[in-house]
Amino acid sequence: MINSKTLEALQPLFEIIKNAKGKTIGQIKEELFIGDKCKMKKGASGLIVENLLGINNNNRDEADLPEIGCEVKILPLQINRDGAIKAKEPTAIQMINYCQVAQETWETAKLRTKINITFWVVYLAKEYGKKLSQDDYTIVDYFLDHPNASQLAIFQKDWEEIQTYIVRGDADKLSCSMGVFIEPKTKGANNQDKTIAPDGKGGTIYARRRAFYYKKNYTNTQIIPNLDLSVVKKINE
């Protein structure tokens, strides 16, 4: 259960996104007076949303809002050709430190601090197979996620499967097809971007860099059904 202190701390962020619903990233840039200064490289729209919320982007182990242990995640949606509204892509959680994960238990796993409480900000990024300009992404809604016991059991099973591969020296055999809620997806400059991992015999090997990602199955089944999608419906009227 999310306590009152956490909800009180998040209330200003709820209001910010409520007031931004239906606005485009381009409009938000203008409101933040960064319209001409911001080059829209890949991921820039997510950084603009974080700017809107007053949050500094970080790649540290601690949560984006450390005082309440809350992560902020951006979820781009797409409208498929059949009209279904789905997640556009998996969502990165954190880089996998193979040697660290090999020494953890589920109870001590760093991953748990990253999935405990998540404030999802959702925007529409693709319509009927057509990619939109990041300036045209439209804020749809938000959702506060706190996995329950049954959801955590699935996360645990996924994590333990990934850890098993790492411990036995098969970090480079991990696949994004694994898992129900999380997957170990490659995340590096190229296939030669490698880092140290256990070899299963007390030594180390090099394996491609990967990160824990929320699978689209998680966001499609656990997040999107809880959203108010009226903004999307208005756009397509």
Folded structure, characterized:
Strand 4 and strand 5 form a beta hairpin. The longest helix is centred in the middle third of the chain and has 19 residues. The protein has 237 residues and is of the alpha+beta class. The protein starts with a helix and ends with a helix. 32% of the residues are buried. It is built from 8 helices and 10 strands. The model has no long low-confidence stretch (mean pLDDT 91). The radius of gyration is 19 Å and the shape is globular.
Describe the structure concisely for a colleague.
By secondary structure, the protein is an alpha+beta fold. The protein contains eight helices and ten strands.
What's the helix count?
Answer: 8
How much helicity do the residues have?
Answer: 25-40%
Unreliable runs: none
pLDDT averaged residue by residue: 91
Distance between the termini: 38 Å
The radius of gyration computed from the alpha-carbon positions, rounded to a whole number of angstroms, is 19 Å
Assembly level: single chain
Number of strands: 10
Choose one word for the global shape: globular
Structural class comes to alpha+beta
Element string (H = helix, E = strand) = HHHEEEHHEEEHEEEEHH
| Major sheet | 5 strands, mixed
Strand content: 15-25%
